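[audit] Reproducing an earlier prediction to check determinism. Same input, same settings, fresh worker. If the tokens differ from the archived copy the diff job will pick it up downstream; this log only records the rerun itself.
[audit] input (114 residues):
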Amino acid sequence: HVQLVESGGGLVQPGGSLRLSCVASGDTIGRYCMGWFRQIPDKEREGVAGIESDGSTSYADSVKGRFTISRDNAKNTLYLQMNSLKTEDTAVYYCAAGGSWYEYWGQGTQVTVS
């Protein structure tokens, strides 16, 4: 069983940057597909970025060119570098890990762009 804990959220002005971290415990993340998701009240959770065990990445169109997902398997940590933040990026951000599907989720960290 994998436990995920996110950190790094906060309040930032439009155009600013934040880096989210997600530390895993209970298993090594190297063999998992991992991703970042976000959710605002009354909206469905949406995928932001994903990274496979081989390092290949994917991004939602809304964040391409601004966000970068990365992983440090030695530190068992997933990152999301967010640049050029916009007000519409405001949400609770979750990290997730899994094999065939995202079965493990963190508790979320709030990002507010205002």
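[audit] rerun output stored. Observation attached for the diff report: The mean pLDDT is 96.
[audit] end
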